TrEMBL record:
Residue ranges occupied by any HTH cro/C1-type domain in the UniProt entry: 12-67
Biased composition (Basic and acidic residues): 217-243
Annotated protein name in UniProt: Transcriptional regulator with XRE-family HTH domain
InterPro entries cross-referenced by the UniProt entry: Cro/C1-type_HTH, Lambda_DNA-bd_dom_sf
Bias (Gly residues): 244-253
Pfam families attached to this UniProt entry: HTH_31 (PF13560)
Organism: Micromonospora violae
CDD domains on file: HTH_XRE
Source organism phylogeny: Bacteria, Bacillati, Actinomycetota, Actinomycetes, Micromonosporales
GO terms for MF: DNA binding
Signal peptide interval: none
Segments of this protein annotated with the region Disordered: 213-255
Length: 422
């Protein structure tokens, strides 16, 4: 068995023993039960939440990727295999022997982790089979997730039209489930923005957000009375997002929203703000980020079953990008220098941080700070090499910085690595 085939639970056990910890010691330090640690190590409980893996890795004093297996060398350039994904999206036949739902759930969880670590070359190879398997299992939630992962990856690889197709498939798979439809709208917005259709992205996200969350400017009779905090349920939610219905019923009965619903709604508001900035509606973008901040400030910790990474730090990153979009790079970089010092920044997935830093490099270019741009690109490469080496957008930013005479050392090296010449 190769190191890549070893279950993550067994890696946790090995590193725990190396650190001379008992299961109880590890449990205490990650604020879990001994039974939880035992189940993880035996493989009886799946460890597929990036934030939890980070926490365990921190206690064991290893990089999270060590627990996930040694990654292969990051490829340079757009990974081969997009045509295989296109072919998978064009297939409508259902596999004769579909996988078990629990096995597909495990595969989807692994695909999300692969995406969050920016291992795009590996994900390109996995997705065609995952899409085929998801069509054979009668689970709208897993099918929506598979299409969302596919759409997100295709946006990264510069295949915006194909990304929109995958996102549209996610919306169709969501059916009448309003929360699944809202998560699919996140992917719709990302794909539309990548297609430079910001107005359409703004319309889609605002409609979905207003269906999911109360509009503070227009309180409705069926909304829960009392403080905003009291409208967020504290009940745990599993990976299937149970209890996700958003309707009030025929009689307009008041109900509480789950933390997952608020997180999805907040993410839609962030996407709407970015879309508004992209089409020049800067005041509206600021209003939407303020509304998203109101959601984030009152949302307490939860296990992020819908893979949004939403929270106060996500809103602050959006403020940086909105400021850069309106041409106020000085304000954007001032905010940037503050937000990256927060502990919550380091807890974001590598993909999220790497993509953000590439955008920040563009803000540095706006003010003519080539060294700052170079530093952001080098930091992005150290956090998520796939973001810098596989994405056409990042290659363009590297080329812009590398044109300087002389080019900053770090970017000169990156330009060589990705095959660019000055």
């Amino acid at each position: 068995m190769s190191s890549d085939d070893i279950p993550i639970g067994r890696r946790v056990a090995r590193w725990r023993v190396r650190r001379s910890m008992t299961q109880q010691m590890l449990a205490d330090r990650v604020r879990r039960s001994k039974s939880w640690v035992d189940k993880v190590e035996r493989g009886a409980r799946t460890l597929d939440r990036y934030s939890v893996i980070q926490e365990v890795a921190h206690v064991l004093r290893v990089d999270p990727e060590v627990l996930l297996g040694q990654p292969q060398a990051t490829p340079v350039g757009t990974p081969d295999g997009v045509d295989d994904i296109r072919a998978a999206l064009a297939r409508y036949d259902i596999p004769r022997v579909p996988p078990r739902t629990d096995e597909l759930r495990r595969q989807v969880g692994h695909a999300w982790l692969t995406y969050q670590h920016a291992h795009y070359g590996q994900l390109v190879r996995v997705l065609p089979g995952l899409l085929d398997a998801a069509q054979g299992v009668r689970s709208p939630e897993l099918l929506v997730q598979a299409y969302r992962i596919t759409s997100s990856l295709l946006v990264k690889l510069g295949e915006a039209d194909l990304a929109w197709l995958a996102a549209d498939r996610a919306m169709s798979a969501a059916g009448d489930d309003p929360l699944l439809a809202a998560t699919a709208t996140i992917s719709i917005a990302q794909a539309l923005r990548a297609c430079n259709r910001d107005h359409l992205a703004l319309t889609a996200t605002l409609s979905a957000a207003n269906r999911l969350l109360p509009d503070p400017a227009r309180p409705r009779d069926h909304e829960v009375d009392g403080p905003f905090e009291d409208q967020i349920t504290r009940q745990p939610h599993d990976q299937r997002g149970e209890g996700r219905g958003t309707g009030t019923g025929g009689g307009g009965v008041a109900r509480q929203r789950s933390a997952g619903e608020w997180a999805v709604g907040g993410t839609l508001l962030v996407q709407a703000a970015l879309a508004a900035a992209g089409c020049g509606e800067h005041r509206r973008a600021d209003e939407l980020t303020e509304r998203a901040a109101g959601v984030a400030a009152r949302l307490r910790g939860y296990d992020d079953p819908h893979r949004t990474s939403f929270g106060p730090v996500a809103v602050e990153l959006a403020r940086v990008l909105v400021a850069a979009q309106r041409g106020d790079a000085v304000e954007a970089l001032r905010r940037h220098s503050t937000v990256v010092r927060r502990e919550a920044w380091r807890r974001l997935p590598a993909e999220y941080r790497g993509a953000y830093l590439v955008d920040v490099a563009r803000a540095y270019l706006q003010v003519g700070d080539l060294r700052g741009a170079a530093r952001a690109l080098v930091d992005a490469d150290s956090i998520a090499p796939g973001e810098v080496r596989c994405r056409p957008l990042a290659r363009t930013v590297i080329a812009d910085v590398a044109r300087a005479q002389p080019a900053p050392a770090g970017v000169a090296r990156l330009a060589t690595v990705v095959g660019l010449t000055r």
